[in-house]
Structure formats: structure tokens, C-alpha cells
Amino acid sequence: MNFLSDPRWNDALTRLPDYLGSHVRVSLTALALGLVISFPLALIVRRRPVLRDITLGIASIVQTVPGLALLALFYPLLLALAGLSLQWFGHGFSAFGFLPSVLALALYSMLPVLRNTITGLQGIDPAIMEAAEGVGMTQRQSLTMVELPLALPVIMAGIRTAAVWVIGTATLSTPIGQTSLGNYIFAGLQTQNWVFVVFGCAAAALLALAVDQLLALIEGGVKLNSRTRIVAGCLGLIALIAATLTPAMARARTNYIVGAKTFTEQYILSSLIAQRLQAAGLSASPREGLGSNVIFEALASGDIDIYVDYSGTLWANQLKRTDIRPRKELLSDLATTLKDKYGISLLGELGFENAYALVMPRKRAEELGIRTIADLAPRASSLSIAGDYEFFSRPEWAALRRSYNLAFRQQRQMQPDFMYAAVASGEVDVIAGYTSDGLIAKYDLVVLGDPKATIPPYDAVMLIAPKRTSDTKLREALQPLLGRIDIATMREANLRASGGDGASSPDAVARWLWEKIGKR
Amino acid sequence: MTSAAPSIAYENVGKSFERGRIKAVDGVSLNVTAGEFLAVVGGSGSGKTTLLRLANRLIAPDSGTVRVHGDDVRGLDPIALRRSIGYVFQSGGLFPHMTVADNIGITPRLLGTPAQKISARVDELIDLVRLERAHKDRFPHELSGGQRQRVGVARALAANPKIVLMDEPFGALDPLTRDALGEDYRALHRSLGLTTIMITHDMAEALLLADRVAVMRAGRLVAQGAAQELSSSSDAYVGELLNTPRRQAERLQELLPKDRA
């Protein structure tokens, strides 16, 4: 197929107003906040060496924290603050999306502004400062009439650096619930939609370039004392902000927000749920690419209305349980606890499980005579295993190692999508895959048995936010999905979504899935 | 010397830096009469610049008293004091981001003078220091060293000060420019009735321009007086300082007899 006639370009383009608008809003707000804090701070600390070094030190440390981690840290921090505020002042605030993103990005923007403002002011010829004092300027006059104008190019360079950093880093605010151009990148990476990845990167780069050039225009205007340049630059920035506030660019207000975690199956299921709600006349939109803990808290606090999680994940992560219970017992226990502790309703199971499982190429397993994890254990010391970023720190892994006495030669962490190809090509011997993954069939892999039932059940379940508990329209719209999706169907859907064409978008796959299960 | 209160009076003034380790000015007493042109001569580190900056309270004395028109500067608002005294800086000290006109008009602007009046005053000063009006909208880096220093003098005179302080104003200029500028300033000093203190390390320049010369060494005032008084000083350092111009003058006299000039 011709690269440019790929329908995914069109899909990407229709999402642009929402993603770009949100991206501009969050990054420019963060930049403005960062400036408002760091510029006066620089003026305060510049003549106090100890304070200056401490401030710059802290700002540098913040800079070394990876952007994704910084954003992720702000979420629990604000959540705790929101809790305190609710306790003390009677009303909380949303710790989801915009606010944590703005705060984290503002913090991120501070170093270049602080450093350049301080350096710029310190770099002024002392003779000029002496002259300012000598002609009778007050300290403030010396600052505004002489020092700041002279330091302006260096300060502006700092602001421009900050702008580019913030616009780039804002793509990482997607997992904490802020829609941004990162939605393209996260969704694209998960569903192997390279058109989205390229589109998202290009859009973020162009935006950064545009803002940088507008700031350069303002800087040039100030330097050359050209009012037209300053006005043109400011108008450009204002136009950018105004454009994001126009109805077309603003997020369409919908009543129901469907959450999705960061993997393909979640994108499909959230699309499916949103489509079902829309079919029932309810306005709904997906909020994709949310982190595993973020999504649960967002549901509990009502920032999203519904999403699909897995019983074993909830059991271990939210309920902090380490015991393994029979499937039915675990589900009913889970439903009761979620209701009592968080007010969350467990609507029901979808019908399939997406459990962790140890997976090997079929041929290799047959050669070695391995059919279960118990068969694998004695050979593990000469084999390597790969898992996703969380598997090796999860209780299942600890339980597996304990009960089968597993010790591998090497363990590696990988992006889930690359894991299957890696095991199929022999790069690693075993992977901790997911039972519903379509790639198991595609690469002719085999799921190893778990005779000791060490891995807990992972039934896909729909969870509903506390505020929607008695929403019968919602429950009715979703009823037809319960118990309908078996493992084979889900695997096929996941496999379809990993194809590289227009029919592989989560929306298209969700429609295919409904066609298939709706008629049963 | 007249009997009226001196324009600037140093009374046993002391100032040290780095917690007393460096005595920049050490017990100096010196009067500058209204209308007088005083040159302060000394090597680098002799304390002459510190002495100058004590006069408009860019530096406050540790001991002793500095009076301007009879008032102790400690009792005056330093900002107002600096605006009322002209100051010419070593290599111009012009603000590089301001035009010639803006540089000249800075002190009136700080004093809140209306823009129109400033503009008229700038034109007047440009004529006075013999710059071209076409230079008004140029930036300092577009001027020659001599032109820059003329702007510096114009800026110092903008707010009609009675006193002008000059910190090695002509030091970085070539001899011809230096001579022309010195003579021009000397004429302005006289016609405007200014009181001037000029710092220089060049004894010849001091003797040629000033009414009176004060010699500083290691923070102390070692001699003061008109040329003839100085030449009778018993201080060896003063003698040394005077020897150079004297020898040069004699040598030049031999080399350039008047009738052949």
C-alpha cells in the first residue's frame, strides 16, 4: 500500500485538534508557571552565593530525574494533597491529568531559566554596573534599565531552551491522564502503529520549532527595538493559545470517559466500550495510555468512569494480597472489597483471562520435552527469560520462583511487543507473556502449564467509578459484553490490532470484535 | 583659595577593604574649592579612585567625614547626591544598549525631566562637547574612543551639576585626541563654573589641565599644590613623578626648537 494513502494518516489527522490543543495548553501553562516562579527566584538568589548554589543544585537534580518518572511522581503526590485538602477544607481537586502535568513540567522548565538568568546577569561588565550606580540609578532602575536589557539574549536563550524541553517532555504526560501529542506515540508504540508514532513525534517537533521561532522573533524585536517584531511574536503566541481554546480544538465534552492502560488489548476494549456507550446514546470518549496505578486511582476518584482491569492485578496491586485463591472465590472477594474500600463496582467478567504465563517456541519446547513450568525448572539454569517492565517485581514471579525453584541464567526486561519476536528468534529462551496475546499463535509459541496453580487468575473485569454505581443506562449498555469474549476471540482481536494497516486501528478492531460477539 | 565653604571637603578620611587588610585611603584631609580643577595623581593602588568615589558616596568612609557643599554625605540621600554630581568613567562607561542620545539624557530621565526637555538638552550638550548631531541615534560601539568619551562628558553634564568627578577620563585615548578633549573639557570647566576632580596617573596631564595637583601614594596624600608648590616638595616620590615630564619637556625643547616648528 502506498505509504501516504494509508488511512491511518487520516485517523491521526482527525485526532490532531484534540491532542494538539491539549498539548499546547498544558505546555504553555507549565512554561508560564515555570517562568513566573524561576525568574523572580533567579533575581532573589543571584547575589547570595550559598542560596544560588542550592537553588541551581536542586534545579539540576530535578533535571536529572527522567521526565516520565517526574510526571509519574507528581500524581501520587497530588493525590495525597487532594486527600488532605478534602479532609481539611471540605473539597478536594483532581490529581489527574492537567494539574500534575503542569506542575511537573513547570519544575522541569526551571533550570534553563534560572541558570541563564543568573549567568546573564552575572556576565555584565562590572564597569557598566558601576556607571549605572554612578549616574544615580536605584538598584531597581539599574536592574530594569541596564542589567535585564543587557542580559536579555542569554535569558531568552534559557526561555527558549525551556520551551523546547517542556513541549518535548509534555508528550510524556499521557500516562498520567493528560491528553497530549504523546497519545499518538504511546498508542502507536503499543499497537505497532508507526504512522501514529511518526505523526506524534513530527507534530511535537513542529510545535516546539514554532514556539521557539516565535520567542526568537520577540527576542529579536527587543534587541533591535522593533515593535513590529515584538507584536508579531506575541500575536503568534496568543494565536496559538486562542486556537487551542476554540471549540474545534477543545476537547469535546463527553459524559463518560473510558480509561485504557498502555497495551493493545486495553486500547481495543476501551474503544469497544466507548462504541457500545455511543450506540446506547451516551456520549463517551476513551482516555488512553494510562499507567496501571494511575488508572485505578483515577477511577476511584471519578476522573474516569469505566475501564477494564484484571482480577489478579487488582488482587496483588490494589488489595496487596499474596495468597492465591480459587477463581470464583477471588472474584467475589474482590468485588466485595472494591465496593467496601473504594466504592468501585465490579460489573462483571468479559469472559477471557489475560494472565501472565511462561511462553516458549513450540519446537524448542518439544525438543527439550518441556510442557509445564515443572519440566522447565531443572533446565532453567542454562536458559534466559525476558519479561515486561513490571513482571520481575511482581508477586507472581516471586511465587513462581518459590514453588518451582526457578533460577534462570539471565533475566531481561523488554517492551512487551518485542518480547514475542525475541523468543521466536531465539534471542531469549522463555518469556513471561500474556495468555490473551495474539502473537502466541502468530509465532507458534506454547504456553507452559502451571500444575501447582501458582499464577493467580487474571479474569478481565469491567470496573465502574463510584459515582456511576446506580447508573442503569450505563450498566444496560455494557451488559451485552459480559461473558462474551472468549480467549480465542480476544487473541484474534489482539493479533489483528498488531497488523500494520488501516484495519488494525483499535476502533476498527473493536468494530470487528462487536460484529463477532454481538451476533452470538 | 577663597574663604567660602569648599565644594568638597575630606576631613581625615579613612577607608579600608578586605576587613582592614588593605588601607585604600588613610587619613586624607583635602579641600576642593568651588570652581577649582583638582587633579589627583598616583600609581595604581594608590587609593585615588577610592578617594573620588567617596565624594558621591559610591563608597562610604570608615572614619572621618566627607562634605559636599558643607553637608556631611552620610546625611544625604546617596541617589539624589549622585544625580547632582557629574561622573565621567574610565573608558566611557556608556550603556551599550542605549543610543548616544539616551546615554546623555539618562540622569535627567532618572530625575523625571519631560522627554521634550531632555531632547533639547541633549542637542545642546552634543554641540557643547563638539559631537555631531548625526551621532545622536548611534550606539556606543559605532563611535570612536574619543567620541565615546565626549558622550561620557556630555552625560556627566546633562543634569547641570556643579561638581564633576572624572576617573582617568582620557587614559585610553591616543595623544592627539587626548589633548583635544582635555583642552575642550578645561574650557567647559571654566565657562560652566564647574568644580572638577580628575583622577590620572599622568603627571604631565595633571599639571597641564588642573589648577592644583594632589599626589597619593599607598592611601596617603603625600603632597598637594600648584605646579610650583609641588616642585618644591621634599617628598622623593613627588620629585620622581615630576622628573619625567620635566625631562621630556627639556628633551622635546631640544628636538623641536620653536623657530623650526
Descriptive report:
The complex is a heterodimer of chains A (520) and B (261). Chain A has three domains: 243 residues, MetI-like (MetI-like fold, Orthogonal Bundle), CATH 1.10.3720; 159 residues, D-Maltodextrin-Binding Protein, domain 2 (3-Layer(aba) Sandwich); 92 residues, Osmoprotection protein (prox), domain 2 (D-Maltodextrin-Binding Protein, domain 2, 3-Layer(aba) Sandwich). Chain A is built from 21 helices and ten strands. In chain A, the strands form three sheets. A five-stranded mixed sheet of chain A has the order 7-6-8-5-9. Chain A has a three-stranded antiparallel sheet with strand order 3-10-4, with helices on both faces. In chain A, strands 1-2 form a two-stranded parallel ribbon. The two termini of chain A are 34 Å apart. In chain A, β1, α10 and β2 form a beta-alpha-beta unit. Helix content of chain A is 61%, strand content 10%. Chain A has 520 residues and is α/β, with parallel strands linked by helices. Chain A is elongated, with a radius of gyration of 27 Å. In chain A, α5 packs across α6 and α6 packs antiparallel against α8. Chain B has 261 residues and is of the alpha/beta class. Chain B has a domain of 178 residues: 3-Layer(aba) Sandwich (Rossmann fold), CATH 3.40.50.300. Chain B is built from ten helices and ten strands. In chain B, strands 6-7-8-3-9-10 form a six-stranded mixed sheet, with helices on both faces. In chain B, strands 2-1-4-5 form a four-stranded antiparallel sheet, with helices on one face. In chain B, β1 and β2 form a beta hairpin. In chain B, α5 packs across α6 and α6 packs parallel to α7. The model of chain B has no long low-confidence stretch (mean pLDDT 89). Chains A and B meet through α5 and α6 of A and α2 and α4 of B.
